[in-house]
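Translate sequence into structure tokens.
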Amino acid sequence: MRKLVLASRNKGKIEEIRQMLADLPVEVVSVADYPEVPEVAETGNSFRENAVIKAKTVAEATGEMALADDSGLMVDVLDGEPGIYTARYGKPGWTDRERYEYLLSKVSHYPFSERTARFVSAIAVVDPANGRIETAEGSVSGIITDKPAGNNGFGYDPVFYLPEYGKTMAELTEAEKNRISHRANAIRAIKSVLRAMLG
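Result follows.
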């Protein structure tokens, strides 16, 4: 069985993707299992470019098929911020909570109806055996809340409200999130391609 190396050290993200790919004939491992793989500088101008950079670096360093996700939050009234800087928003070393509190402070003077936002995920898969690169994107729309709610998820999930569910992303069950999240939509889009790549 072939290995698929996830280009992430984020335990929440790794577990989420592992569950979504559980029915594929592949052993899903993490880049954390390969200490020789260098940290990847995300120098792309889009989620897709960053996902490809990460997947290529990991595939080349490990010799295994690699999957990378680059995802983030885009808030309309902030002209798409934090965007590709989602994980590095605010100051270096900040926690998830400090980042989303900073975001809340930036949207606090806008009415709730104007705080529309979306989570975007770009997935790239690179097969070093033949140099093949495949990508897919997924998104989910919501609204930035006034205050955090929920203990599930990570990142900005506690402040991302889904009107059709009446909950924040962090209040969803794992099963609900794996069905509707931006990453779930991107993984669904790449899954049939990945199945074909695995032969």
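Note: The chain has a mean pLDDT of 93.
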